[in-house]
């Protein structure tokens, strides 16, 4: 102890101090969202902030709080032991499902207007079009994706596990019951949800591997907690789709609207990682991690898809957690160390390292157009930051358990 004290004194006299620990991703997330949540009852957090070279966000994102990002943030805050802040987002998810401007079936939209909620119907994102002099909304944001509804249910289940409060469990059950009633495709899996403007939305008949993973996770969790047979059956239905899309060493995106399997040349990183994170009794599915290394890895991380045009920060964080789950903690730590360069002064991580990242997917989920116009941009992003937190804390969002 005396030697340590003398060494410390000598370093101080020389103007040298011990190396400072890197700030945690938890601290960054709390820095970014805490002021907007503290002392509030129900709040949605805006998903993106303007990039370093942007004076403002595009109008279509300027007020947008995506449900997926907010659900992730709530789970990540629980992982950071900030249940007080997570409650505020969870309350917003539950309240938005209860009070909608058009529908009374307890669905959630894909996005809401960022900010506090009261007991009136939750406001949807939008903007004033000065040229047309009309209020504009986004058809995809107004819709209800099966996967996004499931992620909201995962957030509420995480809060129920953390607090024991029955209202979070009942909220998750309402969301899962909506999925069962609205998106079940017989015994084959669950369809994509709904797209478009009120009140006549389009039913999406394709099935997504990603969505069915989310549904499996929610249904399995609810069955563990409630023993209700319908949740066991829902988990089995979702599992059938996952079994069908697994191709021996990787997963396909899902099915086309006609039920045939999706094209094999379309790849997505999260589709390769999420199924085996959510399904513990399918060890063979972990081969998809090695497939991702061969087909999706780039210098410093992973791309969204197979064109390898840059680092997708959110997916790279998912891969860091995946490595931890398979026992390769060193690989996970290397990815996390690289993600520190993506931190911004707000505390959020940028979504990409390059100005723009392609996904190969279309914004229009109906299939009316297949133009690959869905991109990620170098902007501070709530979802990417939340996944970095989950990787850092070793939290599996599909099961609510920490990775050893």
What does this molecule look like?
This protein has 404 residues and is α+β, with helices and mostly antiparallel strands. The chain has one domain: Glycosyltransferase (Alpha/alpha barrel), CATH 1.50.10. The chain contains 14 helices and 17 strands. It has helices at 2-13, 25-37, 67-79, 83-98, 139-142, 146-163, 166-183, 209-226, 229-245, 269-278, 287-295, 313-325, 329-339, 382-393; strands at 43-44, 64-66, 111-113, 115-116, 127-129, 134-136, 144-145, 191-195, 202-207, 297-298, 301-302, 349-350, 356-358, 375-377, 380-381, 395-396, 401-402. The strands form eight sheets. A three-stranded antiparallel β-sheet has the order 7-8-9. The protein has a two-stranded antiparallel sheet with strand order 1-4. Strands 2-3 form a two-stranded antiparallel ribbon. Strand 8 (191-195) and strand 9 form a beta hairpin. The relative contact order is 0.12.
Q: What topology emerges from the helices and strands here?
A:
Blueprint lengths: L1 H12 L11 H13 L5 E2 L19 E3 H13 L3 H16 L12 E3 L1 E2 L10 E3 L4 E3 L2 H4 L1 E2 H18 L2 H18 L7 E5 L6 E6 L1 H18 L2 H17 L23 H10 L8 H9 L1 E2 L2 E2 L10 H13 L3 H11 L9 E2 L5 E3 L16 E3 L2 E2 H12 L1 E2 L4 E2 L2
